[in-house]
Amino acid sequence: MSVVPETITLDRHHPASLERVFRAFADPAAKARWFRGPEGGDPQGETTFDFRETSAAGGRTHLVLTDQGVYLDGRDSAKARPSGIDAQLALLAEVAGRDQL
Questions:
Q1: CB-based burial of residue 93 (10 Å sphere; 0-12 exposed, 13-18 middle, 19+ buried)?
Q2: Which has more pLDDT, 46 or 48?
Q3: Which of the listed residues 10, 30, 73, 80 has the most CB atoms within 10 Å of its CB?
């Protein structure tokens, strides 16, 4: 069995305050609106977040998301992860920017 660890880092600026972005992560109902797994299903694996790489200025939030994964025997790879995470971050921007959050 081969095990391949991979780390992906995505850097994004969101047009929402730090408080709204944090709430989109921390509130389970808000998180369920943007944090989805493949084909819109439940996310796979651990879904905890660390906010050390987040800052805000002028009502915008700078978010650096680092995703760490372990892939077994070539059944999965990190190659598809950036596009999936990108889609999640686009939904995050929508959710965090809505008035009802």
A1: buried
A2: 48
A3: 30
Question: CB–CB of 96/21 below 8 Å?
Answer: yes
> In sequence order, which residues have a C-beta less than 8 Å from that of residue 24 and are 6 or more positions away?
16, 30, 31, 34, 92, 95, 96, 101
- Please answer whether residues 91 and 43 qualify as being in contact, where contact means their C-beta atoms are separated by less than 8 angstroms: no
pLDDT in tens, 3-34: 888 888 888 888 888 888 888 888 888 888 88
In whole angstroms, give the CA distance from residue 45 to residue 16. 27
Backbone angles phi, psi at 48, to 5 degrees: -105, 155
Phi, psi for residue 100 in degrees, rounded to 5: -80, 5
Which amino acid appears at position 38 of this protein? Answer: P
Give, to the nearest 10 degrees, the angle between helix 81-97 and helix 18-26.
Answer: 120
